[in-house]
Design brief:
Polyamine Oxidase, Chain A, domain 2, FAD/NAD(P)-binding domain, 7-stranded mixed β-sheet, alpha+beta, 15 helices, protoporphyrinogen ix oxidase, domain 3, 6-stranded mixed β-sheet, 3 domains, globular, 33% helix
């Protein structure tokens, strides 16, 4: 059988691309090697409730995710998190609220009281000297860490940038390209004259409202809706089907060739074996009723006695989770790699980070995810995290754009209406 287009991988990027191609009139087949769709936008069952196993929110920037949810009939279920701040667990073991007016931890006002509280007066004054530097200083940096270190100093990198980037992008700021952190940051530094001014300008240009949002009932509902829409449009979805070989005009599956233009939505595991483990705990802990650390914490890499890189207090962050778990609390901790005795480690870390002992764990889950390698595939179109960057706000518009570009370049004119299957 020949399809107009073949999508290899059933994560959100692959599903978005498959849906768009079907809407453009392609006959589409999607292959997913596992038995479930969605990749890291996944469902888990814990303490009798369905919660997200990985991604539990999306960045609202650009509006692409919200627009997709509207098209899928989920707009009325978009919810925003509690306005309580996230906290920073510092290298000395103390915790403070994360400064409010920053971008990935870069302060827009280095001398603001919450910045001074987080990194100290001396470090804040060093960061403020960013305004005295020539605009071009540091703008040739290849990484975000290098840019911030040159302009604002080591203390901002280690005390603010590193825990935030580690929590958001699962990497060191010294490994994060500037454009991946924000495509406009370098240009704004040159235009505004300083890094702090660039951060303020980028924040001012962002739409009003919460920087992140979620879906009532779980982000995994996006996957369910995409899969239903793809099937309605005639996309053939084959689960539990590894693809053995990939080329620009077809794939080998089960020893047989399947022809069609190919979109790669599944990257091979990274060569460095980078993995991320997420542990969710449902606990009976009255000391958490007042959300002592807001919606959660980001952890400095050198924080003593804590292996987690971040903690999200789910029942404090999302009202729908609190409603689903009355009188109980759900917290989720993330780890680089796979910790020994993950649940016991997470229980210990949660007590330290939240400042209250966790005496009774009612239920727990553990999931480990492999990070994808760079999707450098020559002329082969690629979508998903490895191609677009971290987060649905990057993945969704990139997949839409890639599918539209493929449609325009191929100019396939199928002899059927959009969404109907074409036998070949």
């Amino acid at each position: 059988m020949t399809s107009d287009a073949i999508v290899v991988g059933g994560g959100v990027g692959g599903l978005v691309a498959a849906r768009r191609l079907a809407l453009e009139g392609f006959a589409v087949t999607l292959f997913e090697q596992s038995e479930v769709l969605g990749g890291q936008v996944a469902r888990q069952r814990i303490s009798g409730v369905d919660l997200d196993a990985a991604a539990e929110s999306f960045a609202t920037r650009g509006g692409a995710v919200a627009a997709l949810l509207d098209e899928l009939g989920l707009a009325n279920d978009i919810v925003t998190p509690s306005p309580s701040p996230a906290w920073l667990h510092r290298g000395d073991g103390s915790a403070v609220p994360l400064p409010a007016t920053g971008l990935l931890g870069i302060p827009g006002d280095p001398l603001a009281p919450d910045v001074v509280r987080a990194i100290g007066r001396e470090a804040a004054e060093r960061a403020a000297r960013d305004a005295e530097l020539p605009a071009r200083t540091g703008t040739d940096a290849s990484s975000l860490g290098e840019l911030v270190r040159v302009r604002m100093g080591d203390a901002v990198v280690e005390g603010l940038l590193a825990p935030v980037v580690r929590g958001v992008h699962s990497m060191s700021p010294d490994d994060l390209p500037v454009e991946r952190a924000h495509p406009r940051l370098r240009a704004e530094v040159l235009e505004q004259g300083s890094l702090a001014a660039a951060v303020r300008a980028l924040r001012a240009a962002s739409p009003a409202g919460s920087a992140v949002a979620g879906i009532r009932g779980g982000m995994f509902r996006l996957v369910d809706a995409l899969a239903d829409e793809c099937r309605r449009l005639g996309v053939e979805i084959e689960l539990g089907t590894p693809v053995e070989e990939v080329s620009a005009d077809g794939v080998i599956v089960g020893g047989r060739r399947r022809g069609g233009v190919v979109v790669r939505a599944a990257a091979p595991p990274a060569d460095d074996g980078r993995r991320l483990t997420l542990v969710t705990l449902v606990v009976d802990a009255p000391g958490l009723h007042d959300a002592p650390r807001g919606t959660g914490l980001l952890v400095a890499p050198d924080a003593p006695g804590v292996a987690a890189r971040a903690l999200t207090h789910l029942t404090a962050k999302w009202q729908w989770v609190a409603d689903a778990l009355p009188g109980r609390h759900a917290v989720r901790l993330s780890y680089d790699g796979v910790p020994d005795d993950a649940v016991a480690t997470a229980t210990r870390d949660a007590g330290i980070l939240l400042g209250t002992p966790i005496e009774e764990v009612l239920d727990a889950t553990e999931y480990t995810w492999a990070r994808g390698a760079s999707a450098s595939t020559g002329d082969l179109p690629a979508v998903g995290e490895a191609a677009a960057g971290t987060g649905l706000a990057s993945i969704v518009p990139h997949a839409e754009r890639t599918a539209r570009e493929l449609s325009n370049s191929r100019r396939i004119r199928p002899a059927r209406g959009a969404g109907e299957r074409m036998e070949g």
